Amino acid sequence: MIRIAIDGPGGAGKSTIAKLVGDKLGLEYIDTGAMYRAVGLKLNRKGIKPDDLISISNVLEETTIDFVNGKIILDGDDVSDIIRTQEISKFASIYSQIPEVRSKLVDIQRRIAAGKSVIMDGRDIGTNVLTDAELKVFLTADSMVRARRRYEELRSKGVNANLDDIHEEIKERDYQDMNRKLNPLVQAEDAIRLDTSDMTIDEVVNTIVAMAARVS
Ligand code: C5P
């Protein structure tokens, strides 16, 4: 059994890389960011403010989040595509600071990973969710490189985007994720740092596959 934890800032390529490594090694891939995005989507749709902890707890109690064939299912609906906007990124980052939200999602994450080989990506996987993972990778890249990747991705989908705005949003989200009180984004002591600024996707995937071969 091998559990691989991939953490790092937004736009470092975690999801793309984790999915590909998972395919190569036959591991189930769990995108924890998608779970925070789904909760952000629901709380925002309901107009619940981040300081309304009672309403948040009530909503969480009646919320189900699941992965089916790589799709994220919120209360029975596939929300995989609609959670991928810059707006939902912001909500996810805001609501992910709330202890009730984190504890509910961390419970689900640990339950999904229990007793099987997985690759899970997020911000606190190596430091909190799977502290005894066999391999921990901290994936990072220069913030301008990350902004440019996101910009190219949006442009390729025909979405109008402004590089400087995306760069500002990425830096703001980094700040929020690294400075929140609960489970902030930090590199685990036993994680291997991989700066992907000058690496291709293939190079990153092959590097992680080689690391996995060494620990299993
Ligand atoms: O990885 P992604 O950009 O989809 O994550 C969206 C947001 O969810 C992050 O900015 C972060 O605030 C939050 N998140 C988190 N812990 C995780 C995964 C994501 O707080 N394990």
Automatic annotation (TrEMBL):
UniProt EC number: 2.7.4.25
One example of a Gene Ontology biological process annotation: nucleobase-containing small molecule interconversion
CDD domains assigned to the protein according to its UniProt record, in alphabetical order: CMPK
Annotated ranges, domain Cytidylate kinase: 4-212
Gene Ontology CC annotations of this record: cytosol
Pfam family, any one: Cytidylate_kin
InterPro entries in the cross-refs: Cytidylate_kin (IPR003136), Cytidylate_kinase_dom (IPR011994), P-loop_NTPase (IPR027417)
Location within or outside the cell: Cytoplasm
Domain of life of the native organism: Bacteria
GO MF assignments: ATP binding; CMP kinase activity; dCMP kinase activity
Catalysed reactions, as listed in the record: dCMP + ATP = dCDP + ADP; CMP + ATP = CDP + ADP
Group of enzyme by EC: transferase
Keyword terms: ATP-binding, Cytoplasm, Kinase, Nucleotide-binding, Transferase
Binding positions for ATP per the UniProt entry: 8-16
The family this protein is said to belong to: Belongs to the cytidylate kinase family. Type 1 subfamily.
Protein's name according to its UniProt entry: Cytidylate kinase
Source organism (scientific name): Mogibacterium diversum
Gene coding for it: cmk
